[in-house]
């Protein structure tokens, strides 16, 4: 293989025995460095761990590496365990974190830990898992960290070097292998230079001047999708990935161009045959959602989002890699490390929802998606189109997104109660000393450090108050809780009162899905089965007490409470109903329903793995897992297939 400059530099450091941190644009070829380590290590009987931020990326890496390294590849996620003793083991970061804290000895045989998308440490919801994985990384493991462009890479490397008392080599690449050309759709015209656009005066974009805006707003010609698609197709800039930040809109826009046909007769025949083969292989022949998308597929159009059946998403991904899908409407997860390049990328909007508020895209997030434009070795340049609303487009923000410096990565550390319990078992009252090892401590001023230390102390005090820690030792309840990450408090209270042990298979399934479920805004429970009423009542009392105590100790955010929107579906699934029937009992998307069932399975597996769980509870949980994990819920079956 002919390596680029930055790849050669990284490989040189690897050959000299160093850990390496690589920062390069999306699509630059960072994975080739990981492949070099794998190709070098396996013949030398050295084992490698490869971690990825999401299960979809873990699954894709498993498929890709299995083609290259065959039986030498395994995967371990909350859903799947295939060939777990293989020399190359792919796992989600959560699984790796749990091993570093609870089963460090199981990592002795590994020589390298490869962290893909390491900038995920900046993610508000899951960054803590990445940080904990790096803090508790066994000393013998060498690191390869792969990241999108991050300006404070030297700071990040300095933290790792101080943490592990070893030199970390930094390799940076600023240049994209395929340069990007930016276009803008504004007032239904296509511009190739932002300076040629006549934006509305600032007051027409300012919410404080709405009355002026309503009275004097200039006439607008709204952007038409047909105008943009005709332009892109006419310039021979297909295939196209169209990013949209709402699932329903992805489907709606695909339907909007259903009158277009991007395929010739031969391509139509090929894609029809391939889609039918995939539907047969993935048991989709009778699925209404597969039948719904079929007319679009025959015209070279598709959509892809988390609400779809996982098997249908897989079929669409394979169609796209066949180059027969010319236009795909998708949400942003399509950009996260999944190798699906195109000639062009479109942004339906330049704002998105960031957990608690909607705002303009971060530069790093923008290029994570925009970087999918331009196929290395095939295109001289990639084309990126931004659709701008006449009254909601701030030219300053647009320039910042495209031409600004990517955001620094910052620690999002917020240790879970399970992590606190595991650390308390090892360090006792010296637990706050562990905080000094964190990126948060490394980046923060003394005031912020003190706040973080106080939060840890507050969590320890709450755990003592609730009886998880007694006489400076973990109680039976504490030993149970340390194995259940994220939902420790409520499950442990149900465990201590033997309520958990007295639930049958239906009750356990109802509880597990309620624990993990997050309803959409204003989503209502359609029907609550009688069996779920008592569980909900008990959970409400416990969560009320937990919230009161967390408020008392000034702990934020509050622990998640259960939501019983999937209770009817869970009950019917345990009774043996098929997936179409349980889907009809909820307004949750099919893909989300499967995801929550799989998350519920993971919770049950964690309870089952706890040494504090009784034989009776384990026996019932194992039976429940077996009943739930069938047909389309069985992720391992899908991956093996």
Automatic annotation (TrEMBL):
One MF term in the entry's GO annotations: helicase activity
Domain (Helicase C-terminal): residue spans on this chain: 224-424
Keyword Nucleus: no
GO (cellular component) term, any one: Ski complex
Stretches assigned to the Helicase ATP-binding domain: 11-168
Tagged with keyword Cell membrane: no
Gene Ontology BP term (one): nuclear-transcribed mRNA catabolic process, 3'-5' exonucleolytic nonsense-mediated decay
Highest rank taxon of the organism: Bacteria
Sorted UniProt keywords: ATP-binding, Helicase, Hydrolase, Nucleotide-binding
Record-linked InterPro entries: DEAD/DEAH_box_helicase_dom, Helicase_ATP-bd, Helicase_C-like, P-loop_NTPase, RNA-DNA_Helicase, Ski2/MTR4_C
UniProt cross-references to PANTHER family, sorted A to Z: ATP-DEPENDENT RNA AND DNA HELICASE, ATP-DEPENDENT RNA HELICASE SUPV3L1, MITOCHONDRIAL-RELATED
Name this polypeptide is given: DEAD/DEAH box helicase
Species assigned in the record: Candidatus Ghiorseimicrobium undicola
């Amino acid at each position: 293989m002919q390596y680029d400059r930055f790849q050669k530099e990284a490989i040189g450091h690897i050959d000299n025995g160093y850990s390496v941190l690589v920062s390069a644009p999306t699509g630059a070829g960072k994975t080739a460095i990981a492949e070099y380590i794998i190709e070098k290590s396996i013949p030398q009987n050295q084992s490698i761990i490869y971690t990825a931020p999401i299960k979809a990326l873990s699954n894709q890496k498993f498929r890709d590496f299995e083609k290259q390294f065959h039986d030498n590849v395994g995967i371990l996620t909350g859903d799947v365990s295939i060939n777990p003793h293989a020399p190359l083991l792919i796992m989600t970061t959560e699984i790796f974190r749990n091993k570093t804290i609870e089963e460090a000895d199981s990592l002795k045989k590994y020589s390298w830990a490869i962290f893909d998308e390491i900038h995920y440490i900046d993610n508000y919801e899951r960054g803590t898992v990445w940080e904990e994985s790096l803090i508790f990384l066994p000393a013998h493991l060498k690191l390869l960290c792969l990241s999108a462009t991050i300006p404070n890479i030297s700071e990040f490397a300095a933290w790792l070097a101080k943490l592990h008392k070893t030199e970390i080599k930094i390799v940076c690449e600023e240049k994209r292998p395929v340069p990007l050309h930016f276009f803008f759709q504004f007032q239904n015209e296509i511009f190739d230079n932002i300076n040629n656009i006549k934006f509305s005066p600032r007051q027409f974009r300012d919410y404080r001047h709405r009355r002026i805006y309503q009275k004097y707003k200039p006439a607008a010609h709204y952007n038409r999708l047909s105008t943009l698609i005709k332009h892109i197709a006419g310039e021979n800039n297909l295939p196209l990935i169209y990013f949209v930040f709402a699932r329903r809109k992805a489907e709606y826009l695909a339907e909007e161009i259903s009158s277009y046909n991007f395929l010739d007769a031969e391509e139509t025949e090929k894609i029809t045959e391939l889609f039918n083969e995939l539907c047969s292989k993935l048991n989709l022949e009778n699925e209404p959602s597969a039948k719904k998308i079929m007319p679009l597929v025959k015209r070279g159009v598709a959509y892809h989002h988390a609400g779809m059946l996982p098997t249908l998403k897989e079929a669409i991904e394979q169609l796209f890699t066949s180059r027969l899908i010319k236009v795909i409407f998708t949400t942003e997860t399509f950009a996260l490390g999944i190798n699906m390049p195109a000639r062009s990328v479109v942004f339906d909007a330049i704002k998105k929802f960031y957990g608690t508020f909607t705002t303009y895209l971060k530069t790093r997030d923008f290029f994570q998606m925009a970087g999918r434009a331009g196929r290395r070795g095939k295109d001289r340049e990639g084309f990126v189109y931004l659709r701008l609303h006449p009254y909601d487009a701030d030219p300053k923000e647009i320039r910042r997104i495209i031409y600004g410096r990517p955001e620094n990565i910052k620690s999002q550390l917020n240790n879970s109660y399970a992590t606190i319990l595991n650390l308390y078992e090892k360090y006792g009252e010296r637990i706050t000393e562990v905080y000094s090892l964190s990126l948060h401590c490394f980046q923060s001023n003394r005031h912020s450090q003190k706040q973080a230390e106080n939060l840890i102390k507050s969590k320890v005090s709450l755990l003592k108050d609730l009886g998880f820690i007694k006489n400076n030792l973990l109680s039976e309840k504490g030993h149970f809780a340390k194995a259940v990450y994220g939902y420790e408090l409520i499950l442990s209270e149900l465990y201590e009162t033997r309520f958990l042990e007295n639930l049958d298979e239906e009750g356990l399934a109802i509880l597990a899905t309620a624990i993990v479920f997050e309803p959409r805004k204003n989503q209502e429970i359609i029907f609550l089965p009688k069996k779920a009423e008592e569980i909900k009542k008990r959970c409400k009392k416990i969560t009320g007490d937990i919230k009161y105590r967390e408020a008392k100790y000034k702990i934020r955010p509050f622990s998640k409470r259960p939501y019983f929107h999937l209770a009817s579906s869970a009950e019917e699934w345990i009774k043996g109903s098929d997936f179409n029937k349980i889907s009809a009992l909820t307004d949750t998307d099919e893909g989300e329903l499967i995801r929550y069932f799989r998350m519920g399975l993971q919770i049950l597996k964690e309870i089952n793995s706890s040494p504090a769980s009784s034989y009776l509870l384990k026996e019932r949980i194992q039976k429940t897992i077996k009943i739930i994990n069938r047909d389309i819920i069985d992720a391992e079956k899908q991956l093996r297939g």
